[in-house]
Task: inverse folding
């Protein structure tokens, strides 16, 4: 499973059940990584992508597909093969933090780009290292 998440500097994920922030450039960047497949999202995230038409597919509480954008729940880390983290490079109030141990992953790509509401967004792509039997 490929999963994309947005976090702040302290890996904050949500605050009182709400997203920390939104950014159109981040959304467009994420859609560019879908390889022609629709991005899978939850009903919670649907308003963010109302402009994207059939480039997104709204699924249940935890979508399953080639690439899933999550804001309101996380799968077990064991199911994740690739993690795409967008960091807002700011500190926001957060009461849920991403506390995954990423030692089983390696950084495959990292880049900064300008956002529409954030001066700089950092996208880091983590890929799971080879699993040993």
Result:
């Amino acid at each position: 499973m490929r999963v994309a998440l947005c976090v702040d500097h302290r890996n904050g994920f949500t605050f009182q059940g709400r997203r920390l922030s939104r950014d159109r450039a981040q959304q467009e960047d994420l859609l560019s990584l879908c390889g022609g497949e629709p991005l899978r999202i939850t009903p919670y995230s649907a308003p963010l992508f109302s402009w994207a038409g059939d480039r997104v597919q709204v699924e249940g509480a935890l979508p399953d597909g080639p690439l899933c954008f999550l804001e309101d729940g996380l799968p077990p880390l064991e199911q994740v093969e690739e993690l795409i983290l967008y960091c807002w490079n700011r500190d926001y109030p957060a009461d849920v933090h991403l506390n995954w141990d990423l030692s089983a992953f390696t950084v495959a790509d990292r880049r900064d780009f300008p956002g529409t509401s954030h001066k700089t967004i950092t996208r880091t792509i983590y890929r799971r290292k080879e699993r040993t039997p």
Notes: The mean pLDDT is 91. The helical segments are 24-32.
